[in-house]
Amino acid sequence: MKPALIYTVRSMLILFSLIAAGFVSAGAQQQSTPSPQPANPGAAAHYDRMAAAKTVVLKNIGGSEVPFNVISRNFEGWGHYILVDSAENADIVIEIQSPDDGSEKKDSGNKTSVYGGGQQKEEAAPKPANDMIILTVYDKNKRPMWIGREEPKFAVRHKAADEHLVEAAQKLFTRFHDRVEPPVKP
Questions:
Q1: CA Rg value for the chain
Q2: Do residues 100 and 132 make contact, with C-beta atoms less than 8 angstroms apart?
């Protein structure tokens, strides 16, 4: 073989080996890079604050008492939070708004039920805006942290309407529960 041809073959072999070494080192660097950050870091901060909270006050700000009672019982049975009777003593405030069940009398006025630690108080409340159950979580500074909505199925009979309210309130509480304590994946 001619010396020029040998020189060209050696140069090409060296070039290919350098390129291959570059790919190997680039692959090693890619594996050692940290995992990407969440797309919405604000959501993670809200989740952490809700999970870290110890005390909660529940407020029924309008509508039927059925969803409020269902969600209150679920909070009592859960044990993650301690129910308190005032927003000043609570780490988070949860407001529950539900559709009007039609049982309120016009002269009684709208009232808000506040439940915490076995006591129930009534305060003035706004009229519900729609036919959904809305659960809103606020921090101590009254900034919203999480909002969940669930629309009960339509029912003609009062008994069926109550059953649908219970079902929708249970779904809404389960979504909140899973947000604070995500279920373990199998």
A1: 29
A2: no
